[in-house]
């Protein structure tokens, strides 16, 4: 008689923090911080926006890596690379921003 046991192997993702943008979906609010620029001493170039559309990446179209985001301050719409998203705030209703 054989008995199945759980493998004691550790997941390769154990202890690795996944990027925040992997969980972003349309309707979520995000904090966007542009990449650091060499000439600037202090990088305070951040803003809040609501995700309108998610676009898959070239390597795997099922993984969103570009986002169309509406700035909540001025209503401007921008394309944002996933690594510029520093925080994600879930939307309760999932409705887009009405500027």
Could you explain the architecture of this structure?
- Helix content is 0%, strand content 34%.
- The model has no long low-confidence stretch (mean pLDDT 79).
- The chain has a domain at 20-35 and 42-89: SH3 type barrels (Roll), CATH 2.30.30.
- The chain is built from no helices and five strands.
- A five-stranded antiparallel beta sheet has the order 4-3-2-1-5, with no helix packed on it.
Supply database-style keywords.
mainly beta; 99 residues; 34% strand; single chain; SH3 type barrels
Which helices and strands appear, and what pairs or packs with what?
Elements: E1 29-33, E2 46-56, E3 64-71, E4 77-81, E5 85-89
Antiparallel strand pairs: 1-2, 1-5, 2-3, 3-4
What strand line-up does the widest sheet have? Answer: 4-3-2-1-5
Strand content: 25-35%
Shape descriptor reads: elongated
User: From the coordinates shown, what is the CATH architecture of one domain?
Assistant: Roll
Structural class: mainly beta
Quickly describe the structure.
This protein has 99 residues and is mostly beta strands.
